[in-house]
Amino acid sequence: MFERRKVGAVLANFLIGLREGLEAALVVGILVAYLVKTQRRDLLPQLWAGVATAVIVSLAFGAALTFGPRGLTFEAQEAIGGTLSIVAVGLITWMIFWMARTARHLKSNLHARLDDAVVAGRWAVLLMALLAVGREGLETALFLWAGAQATGATTQPLLGAVLGLALAVVLGWAMYKGAVRLDLRVFFAWTGAFLIIVAGGVLAYGIHDLQEASILPGLGALAFDVSAQIPPTSWYATLLKGVVNFTPVTTWLQAIAWVLYVVPVLFFFIRSVRSARPRTVSSAGAAPAAPSSTVPAVDVTTGGTP
């Protein structure tokens, strides 16, 4: 049975794995369903080969990050870790807003790209699947690595991510078979907001790494030190660090970076979610509301239409 101090790391990475895995599962489901519907089952081996290659590349990328070059100086390690953490925050932020902006047309965009790949040949189908799924895999690997570095744990983040990805695969299969229908607008809205908070913590961690590498100043200028009230070794401090990357000792530069990132990004994300809600029309005979832009227009069943 897990200790309470491990729950935070497992939960945070479980949700990351679930969200990213479900996005990848939706993409794969759309592509498979389209090939089946258009009577091109002969291209399914190339599609699955592209998906498998994307998974292998993502795992190799994660392993390279975790077991990369050794023997570097402390400053060099901190500089690399801090830089990659900031890059991970940029990628996850782009992904959150990309999904909100393009989800409504996700199915039609994938169909158009797959049509072009089919015309180009079997290898083009493999490459298209590799790129579509590989992007999600690389982003997930980098963000999970950055989160693990920020929390100082390895086993718990990996376990949480594996559980989240496993559930995403099950849900993706169930959605493809038509056994499960999820309110994707609500799912991506809540997980998107959560990931912004987590990304803020990863950003603060990256800033601290760059301070320790003497690239950024202010390592000794503390905004607050609540280690007496929240001992770093306590289970609740570990829980906060695992979930939102909170540290009891925070420098001014870390705190400023966190606020300047989380506040505006969360504001614009919430505004985009609210503006994308389906509009209700009270007048009789009016046209039905357009689908929410945060809900992928996806029907991954073999015979369905959006």
Automatic annotation (TrEMBL):
Keyword Transmembrane helix: yes
Keywords (A to Z) from UniProt: Membrane, Transmembrane, Transmembrane helix
Location in or out of the cell: Membrane
GO molecular-function term, one example from the UniProt record: ferrous iron transmembrane transporter activity
Ranges of Low complexity composition bias in the record: 283-298
Entry's transmembrane regions: 12-35, 47-67, 79-98, 119-138, 158-176, 188-207, 252-270
Source organism, top-level taxon: Bacteria
Membrane topology recorded in Swiss-Prot or TrEMBL: Multi-pass membrane protein
GO cellular component labels: high-affinity iron permease complex
Region (Disordered): 283-306
Keyword Transmembrane helix: yes
PANTHER family for this protein: IRON TRANSPORTER FTH1 (PTHR31632), PLASMA MEMBRANE IRON PERMEASE (PTHR31632:SF2)
NCBIfam families, per database record: EfeU
Family: Belongs to the oxidase-dependent Fe transporter (OFeT) (TC 9.A.10.1) family.
Protein name as it appears in the record: High-affinity iron transporter
